[in-house]
Every structure is written in structure tokens, then in C-alpha cells.
Amino acid sequence: MSHLFDLTGKVAVALGGNSTLGAAIAKGLSAQGAKVAIVGRNLNTAEDVVKEIEASGGEAKAFQADVSDLATVERIADEIEAWSGGWDILLNAPGMNSTTPYLELSTEEWDNIMDVNLKGVVFATQIFAKKMVEQQRGGSIINISSVSSTTPLSKVFTYSASKAAMNSVTQYLAREFAPHNIRVNAIIPGFFPAEQNRKILSEERINSIMGHTPMNRFGEPEELQGAAVYLASDKASGFVTGELLRVDGGFGSMTI
């Protein structure tokens, strides 16, 4: 069955591939044979991910871009095409969050978060999808959503709104690109906090999260790799599009 998940010969573009979750997924795609472009606002951290991939025998290259500045995305799209000749997989993993209460929210902060989580992803996808259509070889677009996209979480109003919109965008684009054999799906991760984030989570909030997570633990970033590889593989998920795939320890199945 391993051939179902073989990505040898495929090229993946990982926007936000230097983030905790984006990097883990990028490494998973590489482990199955994909050549990976790691794209991030911070070139140094993107290069660190590339070094880890290369140390494991994979092929990758770092590119600097900010999805909230689409001119940088246009530039690196050209650079990636020159490096790889095109791409088959697009991973959208950039993200910005804030705990500002709704009544204290400014239009500037709203715009900053939406420019990354929604507007930036939508129009960065447009840039890369146009090339995928021109290539006429199909492909897979994978968006990273959140459990807050379906049932909003307290303290993250703007983030929740942006991810809810991303679910709708995912399903709309699934229909838009189906005639081109380009599949569009989203992964809905549960709680996968980086170590530094775990340290600032209050005991009360951790208990609340665990009370809604049947598996009673946080997720590890590597546990997203299987879902991403599945969605990236035409052989494994060639008839799967418009799907919102939960990897959340059961969080979405619980109320009280």
C-alpha cells in the first residue's frame, strides 16, 4: 500500500513552511519523496527547516515571502518555478493570532490578522493555482484551518472568524478547480501548541481544553503529517475534495 502515499517526483510549496505545524508537514511531504519549497517571512527559520530536510536525505530550498505582501509572493513564485519547473502541491500554513477582546479590537489589528490568515492565503493561492491550471497535471491544495473555525473559541475572535472563512474558501475552490483535477481540502488541527506557547497557557484553559479533548492531551506536530500526505497524494485521495479533515483528538465531537 505504500505506493499510495509515494510523492516521488512531486513538488510541494509550503507557505508558512517555517512555522511549527507547517515545518512538520513539510518534513512529512519530503519524507514521502516530494521536493519542497519552504516559504516564510523569516528566511533564517525557513533555512533551518531546509537543513533538517536535507539532513534526512530530502531536497528543499528556502524562499522569503510574506502573504500579506503579495508582491513578494509573485516574486518567489517565479523563483520557485525557475528552481523546480512548477509544483503539484500547495500547503497554506501561514497564520497570525491575537487574544485581544472583541470590544478592544482595532480595525488595524483585524486587518493585520485577516491580511495573513484570509486575504493573503486567498490571493497567494490564486498566484500558485493559476500555474497549476496552466500545467494541466492536476494537483492538491491543502489549507490549514482550526477547530475554532466551526465552533469559535473564546479569546481568539478574529482568528476564529478568519478560519471559518477559510473553510468556506476551501469548499468554494474545491468546486472551482475540480474541472482542472486540482483538489482543495483543509486540515482542522486541534491543539498543537509549540513548547513556548504551552508555557503561557493557564492551568484553567488547559483543563478546559482537555475537558473537550477525549484523548486528553495536546497533539504533536508530526501527527499532522499523515493527513497531509494523504491529501497530497493523487493515488490515495484522488476523489477527495472540499473535505475538512479533523485531526483534533476528538475535540470536535465533544460538548460537555
UniProtKB/TrEMBL annotation:
Keywords: Oxidoreductase. It comes from the Bacteria. Transmembrane segments: none annotated. The keyword Oxidoreductase applies. Coiled coil: none annotated. Belongs to the short-chain dehydrogenases/reductases (SDR) family. This is SDR family oxidoreductase. It comes from Gracilibacillus salinarum. The lineage of its organism: Bacteria, Bacillati, Bacillota, Bacilli, Bacillales.
